[in-house]
User: Fold these one by one.
Assistant:
Number 1:
Amino acid sequence: MAPTKKRLTELSCEEFGDRLASEEGVPGGGGAAALVGSLAAALCSMAGALTVGKPRFADVEQEVSQIMEETEDVRFRLLALVDDDAEGFLPLLDAYALPREDPSRADAVVRATKGACMAPLAMMGECCRAIVLLEEMSERCSRLLASDVACGALLAAAALQAASVNVFVNTSSLPGDDTVASIEAACDEMLDEFVPRARALARRLAGRSVR
């Protein structure tokens, strides 16, 4: 019986980095974006874990616990998207491998390209959720954790932007239609709202300008 192949998120940090640096192609930018987003969520959970149970924060403990529960959902969704992104890329490779004279090739490439947009688009949504949760956590956790929440906000913004690149690089190769326009509009809306929110949060918590 052949050994079960490890999921990308089961690799050690070093193994993941080695795989990312290799010629394999997956994980790529999308998988890296999802992993970074999950780390942003993890920092939010850490801030909660170091707040819950402290007597001086007893009045917000229930709220912090709820934020942590939602944050953990975001974290695990983003981790799942590391592998989903890799799996979404494989049909695109198969489509491009079809002979150019094959009449089904063009449609196959379009379908696979639209499919490859789905995981990074989902990542963007989860990164937006992470930013909202980091904002909420910042108002309830210890000030000693301000730098960790600020780092989480900046990581979430970076992951959001990186995931958007993986959407736009695919939509730019597609013929324009309502689906493509809708995907791009959704991406623009998320970037326009949540990147500034994340940076503003980091600036507020860091107490100085965050470039």
Note: The domain at 27-206 is CATH 1.20.120.680 (Four Helix Bundle (Hemerythrin (Met), subunit A)).
Number 2:
Amino acid sequence: MLQLILKDTVTPCRARMIARGVKAFLDTFVTSDVLFDIELVLTESCNNAALHAYQGLPGELEIKLDIVENEQVGLQVRDWGREFQCPWTLPDNNQESGRGIYIMRQVMHTFDYSRVEDSNVFSFTKKVEPEQWKECI
């Protein structure tokens, strides 16, 4: 297993950049269809931390990436901002936000949220088929 831990300061402007950086690292290992889903989840997670946990102010963010060859990619996104009330159902059509969690749950194989030691922890796994791995592994 290969593990990458990234610690950074997240802001609304930096959220997408952080997700793209992790995606660029993963591009060495998995195909673009897997990357698309992971980038979506990372962008949404980082953006949620910036906008909701830290209310647009700079805040600490940690991303753990676990690559298990020929099996899966695991992600953990952690912030130390305000506690998050994780929606477990799709919001009504008239609501302007709240669909991100639902979308993340649809594109990943597992999804979990927990509040751990004054932090919000989002954990995901994406199963990766043998043909979706690049040869460098």
Note: The longest helix spans residues 32-53.
Number 3:
Amino acid sequence: MEIKKIEKTFDGLRLLVAIAISILFMLIVITAVSGSPMASLGTFLFGPFQSVSRIGNIIELAIPLTFTGLAICIMFEANQINCAVEGSFFMGAVIATAVSVFLPLPFGIHQLVIFLASGVIGGLICLVPAILKVKFQANELVSSLMLNYIVLYSGLFIVNRFLVDSQAGYFASYSISRSSKLPPIVPHTRIHFGIVIAVLCVIFIYLVMYRTRLGYAIRMAGKNENFARYTGISVLTVIFASQAIGGFIGGMAGSIEILGMYRRFQYTASPQYGFDGIIIATLADYKPQMIPVAALFLAYIRIGSDILSRTTDVPVEIVSVVQAIAVLFVASKLFLNKYKQWAIVRAAKTKEA
């Protein structure tokens, strides 16, 4: 138990140190490129907290990042690489728009039907690379990346053929019905009920991963597939289950984003939230309980960078530097490893004494 506690402490510490180092490096870069470094530093660090609407922007951005981070987390815990969450998110938004426009239902029931429809489609999309891998030994990374293009242009065709509003004056669907909208819950912001669903989803996935047989099978198959087979775990079931659950969350995330943040579907390109989910899951070390922390961090630096680029001479691309550094440190398994070994040895000696 002591070793497990040390490992959990180490995982959290590694994330916090990686975030601190990445922010420190960003501050150094700002100092080097800005004509007014101190003002720019203050804008980046404190700009996102200078108004209720800006704080709301952080939380609004963190909601879809939390969902896609959870989706990727489940897949990667099973040692399955699948980038089709991006396609699941996009098609989930398309399906949500279609159900909202063409299937009038009472408030409450309408949202549940949309979440279910979008989630099922998202799950089916993410199952495709898994089936191709099992049946034809296709590389799941390549197949999932290519699948995103198929889903993207298929979704745009559906919107353009059946949902586009020719009276809008730009590429956009018909207005989403009021009975399907997710209501805002914080005045003067666009923070919507999706944040409650996100929190419940984090709790649910945590319980599934650490309190159920399925979660144990997913984690065991991800760590050692051969040992999992030896102990009677169906690796094939784990592969399909992890992809389906992750895809369901990704599809549902697309519907929640559309119903909470938009009046019409107006994506003309991939929103990239699925790929951001890979960053979030990596920062969180594939721990569901750490996903919201990583999502808030990424949302914070992106909002800060956006404010920085609009009000100072520092380019917005600097956020990519911070993301890359943070991911590199978190993904480096030996980063702070000596500290963990020292703590474990010390705990063992103390127990012997």
Note: Residues 60-294 form one domain.
